[in-house]
TrEMBL record:
It comes from Rhodocytophaga aerolata. It catalyses: biotin + L-lysyl-[protein] + ATP = N(6)-biotinyl-L-lysyl-[protein] + AMP + diphosphate + H(+). Pfam families: BPL_C, BPL_LplA_LipB. Coiled coil: none annotated. The keyword Transmembrane helix does not apply. This is biotin--[biotin carboxyl-carrier protein] ligase. NCBIfam families: birA_ligase. The lineage of its organism: Bacteria, Pseudomonadati, Bacteroidota, Cytophagia, Cytophagales. It is an enzyme of class 6 (ligase). Keywords: Biotin, Ligase. Its EC number is 6.3.4.15. One of its GO terms (molecular function) is biotin--[biotin carboxyl-carrier protein] ligase activity. Residues 3-188 form the BPL/LPL catalytic domain. It comes from the Bacteria.
Amino acid sequence: MYNIPPNTLFVGRNIVYLPSCHSTNDIATSLSRDTNVTEGTTVVTSNQTAGRGQRGNSWEAEPGKNLTFSVILKPSFLQASEHFQLNMAVSTACYSFLSQYLPEDIHIKWPNDLYFGHKKLGGILIESVIKNNRLQEAVIGIGLNINQQQFSEPKATSMKLISRVEYNLEKLLPQLLTSLEQFYLKLKARDLSYIQNNYLKNLYFYQKKRTFKSDRIFEGTIIGIDEIGRLLLDVEGEIHRFSFKEIEFL
């Protein structure tokens, strides 16, 4: 399973496949403690029993239906304050992959969910180790709904529900890993404007007024992302900055 090599230099060249595990991020984090583990090592499973999402949420995935995997990266070229640059690179890599298969209604929901229309298609969880003010290591957990058709969450969807096509997971994974490496190498080459422009261009409700909830319910317009990844909103002519847990989309 998952024996098709990606067209990459290092991402996914070493695949650790587990038929079932509690969390690929946890397994990848354990592997990364071995100083000999190569950058790009990828842990993939067919059945993730305790996957984690943002805000401490669990990640629902029917066994054998979706892509659930984690990649070990060593982005020591990034300062700790630049952590959101990695987030944008990974998010745009996933967007680029999905756009090869789905109609033009894919979006990145800040900070790093993948949406089709108003339904969630996938999520990203990045867990980093900082040393000497650098991102010494990052475990990139990605979950994409591919062939699953039944969800307990009404706002979830999958590639199959959208396109009515059954996908070969073993063929999709190397394509996604190739996209991930391409954007990671752009990040390493400091092509930051390319990454940020692509992230903003495809951001869910970018430059459109909508309703949010913080300490109150209000209307605002997303106008950008600041240097540390905070959401910039125009609220009645004033610019407000919100960190991830400080605001909720309604």
